[in-house]
Amino acid sequence: MFKKIVAIEPVSLEPWAEEKLKEFADEVVMYDDMPSDNEEIIKRIGDADAVLVSYTTTIDAEALDNAKNLKYVGMCCSLYTPESANVDINFANSKGITVKGVRDYGDEGVVEYVIYELVKTLHGFGVDHSGKPMKPWDRVPLEITNLKVGIVGLGASGGMIADALSFLGAKITYFARGEKEEAKAKGYEFMQLPELMEHNDVVITCLNKNTILLHEEEFAKFGNGKILFNTGLSPAWDEEPFLKWLEHEDNLCLCDTVGALGDEKLLSHPNVRSVNVSSGRTQQAFVRLSEKVLDNILEYNRGNNIS
Question: Which listed CATH number (3.30.70.2740, 3.90.190.10, 3.40.50.720, 3.40.50.150) goes with 107-274?
Fold first, then answer.
C-alpha cells in the first residue's frame, strides 16, 4: 500500500476509479488544475511515493530527482516508447522509479472520426469554412467502395481504421516496420512508404508522438488531388514540404486536434479541416482508461508483494 498518491493534474479518471484509489494508499490527493511550472510540479509531488499524470504535464529529470520518496509514476495516457513519453522514463528507471502507462483506450473514437470525415468529404455533406454547402471531393458523390487508402503505422489504431475502411470496401495498403502476416491474411498489401504515397488517394498516418516519416520525397510522391489524415498526437511530417503540399487547392488535410496539425494558425487554412477536439476522449474511453490505470497499480503491487 502506498503512503500517498498524488494526481498532479486532472487525469480523466471516472469517479468510481478515484474512489478505488483510496484502497491503494493512506492518502490520495487529486489536483483539478494544471501546474504552472516545474517548481509547482515538484511542490505537488512533495513526499508522495506514487504519482499520477496525464499527457499534458512533463515530469522531467529535475522533478524526479527532487521526489525523494517516489517509487511509482502512473501515466493516465498512452505510453508507446520512452522517447515519446512526457515522463523521463530512463532517468526514472535509473532512480528505481517504476513508470507505467496505458495503451489502446481511445482508438474506437478515432476510427469513428476517420469514417465521419471521410464520408463527409467524399459525399460533400455539411458546410465549408465559410459556411457554404460543401461539394463532393471528386465532383460527384463517392462511396468508400474501392477507394485506395494507405495506412502509415499499422498498430492498434491503424489496424482498427484499416479494418473499418476495408469492411466498407476500401482497398487497403500499409507501411509499417515490416510486413505483418495478420494483415496479409486480411488482404492488406505492404508497401514501402514512397510507393504507398504515390499509390493511394487517401493516406492516414497513425504514428507515435514525435514520429516524423513524411519528408520532401514522400510529399513529392503523394502529389495533388489527395487527402491526408493524421490521427497521432503530433505532426507526422516535416513542416516545409507539408505547407508546400497544402497550398495546392486540390489537397486536403484532416486532423482532429491542433496537436496533430502542428500549428493553431492552420485551423483557418482552406485546405485544412479539424474538429479541434480529441476524438478518442469519449465516455467509454475514460472507463477503459480508468480500468487500465487501476490494473497497472495492482500489477505493480503484486510484483512488489504489496497488499
Answer: 3.40.50.720
Say how many Å lie between the first and final Cα of the chain, rounded.
Answer: 6
pTM of the model: 0.87
CA distances from 161 to 102, 164, 179 (A): 20, 5, 17
Bridge partner list, 171 = 148
Gap between the Cα atoms of 49 and 299, Å rounded: 16
The residue type of 153 is G
The pLDDT tens digits of the residues spanning 244-268 come to 999 999 999 999 999 999 999 999 9
The set of cell numbers assigned to 260 is 496533430
* Rounded CA separation 146/126 (Å): 23
The Cα–Cα gap between 78 and 278 comes to: 13
Q: How far apart are CA 18 and CA 284, in angstroms?
A: 16
Rounded to 5°, angle at Cα 275 from 273 and 277: 140
In this structure, which long-range contacts are made by residues 20-23, counting pairs with CB atoms below 8 Å and at least 24 apart in sequence?
A: 20/294, 21/294, 21/297
Grid cell digits, residue 48: 508522495
User: What average pLDDT does the chain have?
Assistant: 95
